[in-house]
């Protein structure tokens, strides 16, 4: 053993050895298979830059992009009974809830917030599909009711982003009762003459589609979002026929009059601002932070420029 073995060789190995790359730096597009740099993908609102495939996005990430300056305030939602049916399958229901809360860092499957979007105050609610498939339980029902009440109290429009696999089976009939509850909550907005806009994201299925997700004054969907009550595989097995290409996707529903718009996520903010201000009978949105120029401002500008031109 000498200094070459003890010092030089380890030093060379440390310089030229392959460095480990963190696993979270790259994400693979589910549609085209392109490897996308995590930071660029986040800046692009989790839309593939190669094929424009819309990946899953959390409610907080969505709200950060939608609200002015990324500033919004959570609205407290009344908490229901934790396990009303004492349900248990492979795991106890409370254990599943705790696991979902740990993995998502959220209390439940729906987030309700308030804030300004394009200098227009709104109330917004969004479902988190990563929280038990965004399933509709009593908490989600309470969240929709609270969102509607907050919108009526503040006289603001309500925008809801749906993403769900349907009702939550662990709450049985109590989860199904959220369908009429949410319908009554939407009626509160109707009676107050406040806009209710729904943005359907991938996927929106089951009892969610059969209730509040299809009751909007304006129905918008993200591209290629699956929107249905029963999934295409279930229908094919029932009728034993092959369904049309793109059946129950956003573009198919738009062609058949079930939707008003199919809008890219990157253009969603501007689209929503225009629609909200139109429905609230407000002036058109202004690009930038400066107020719109008036006729007096234009006259003053002409006077100030005239001497310089001479």
Strand order of the largest sheet: 3-4-5-6-7-8-9
Helix content: 25-40%
Name the CATH class of the largest domain. Alpha Beta
Give the total of domains.
2
What's the number of helices?
Answer: 12
CATH superfamily of the largest domain: 2-enoyl-CoA Hydratase, Chain A, domain 1
Query: Secondary-structure element order, as H and E?
Result: HEEHHEHEEHEHHEHEHHEHH
Mean pLDDT across the residues is: 88
Radius of gyration: 25 Å
CATH-defined fold name of the largest domain: 2-enoyl-CoA Hydratase, Chain A, domain 1
Termini distance?
A: 89 Å
Question: Sheet with the most strands?
Answer: 7 strands, mixed
Number of strands: 9
Q: Roughly what fraction of the amino acids lie in strands?
A: 15-25%
Shape: globular
Tell me which CATH architecture of the largest domain applies here.
Alpha-Beta Complex
Structural class: alpha/beta
Residue stretches low in confidence (pLDDT < 50, at least 5 long) are: 300-310
Structure commentary:
This protein is of the alpha/beta class. The protein folds into 2 domains: 21-55, no CATH class; 56-284, 2-enoyl-CoA Hydratase, Chain A, domain 1 (Alpha-Beta Complex), CATH 3.90.226. The protein contains 12 helices and 9 strands. The model is unreliable at 300-310 (pLDDT under 50).
């Amino acid at each position: 053993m000498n200094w070459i073995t003890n010092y030089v060789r380890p030093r060379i190995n440390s310089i030229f050895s392959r460095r480990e790359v963190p696993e979270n730096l790259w994400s693979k597009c589910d549609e085209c298979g392109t490897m996308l740099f995590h930071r660029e993908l986040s800046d692009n609102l989790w839309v593939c830059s190669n094929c424009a495939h819309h990946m899953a996005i959390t409610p907080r990430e969505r709200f950060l992009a939608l609200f002015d300056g990324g500033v919004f305030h959570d609205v407290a939602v009344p908490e229901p009974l934790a396990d009303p049916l004492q349900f248990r399958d492979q795991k106890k229901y409370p254990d599943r809830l705790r696991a979902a809360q740990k993995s998502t860092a959220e209390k439940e499957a729906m987030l309700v917030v308030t804030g300004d979007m394009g200098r227009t105050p709104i109330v917004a609610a969004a479902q988190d599909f990563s929280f038990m498939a965004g399933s509709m339980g009593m908490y989600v029902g309470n969240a929709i009711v609270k969102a509607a009440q907050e919108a009526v109290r503040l006289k603001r429009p309500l925008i809801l982003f749906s993403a769900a696999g349907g009702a939550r089976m662990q709450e049985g009939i109590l989860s199904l009762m959220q369908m009429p509850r949410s319908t009554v909550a939407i009626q509160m907005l109707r009676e107050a003459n406040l806009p209710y806009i729904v943005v359907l994201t991938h996927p929106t299925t089951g009892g969610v589609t059969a209730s509040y997700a299809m009751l909007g004054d304006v129905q918008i969907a993200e591209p290629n979002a699956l929107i249905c009550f029963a999934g295409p595989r279930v229908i094919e097995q029932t009728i034993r026929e092959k369904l049309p290409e793109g059946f129950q996707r956003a573009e198919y529903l738009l062609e058949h009059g079930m939707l008003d718009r199919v809008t890219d996520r990157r253009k969603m903010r501007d689209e929503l601002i225009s629609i909200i201000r139109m429905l609230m009978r407000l002036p058109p949105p202004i690009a930038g932070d400066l107020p719109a120029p008036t006729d007096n401002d234009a006259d003053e500008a002409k006077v100030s420029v005239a001497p310089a031109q001479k």
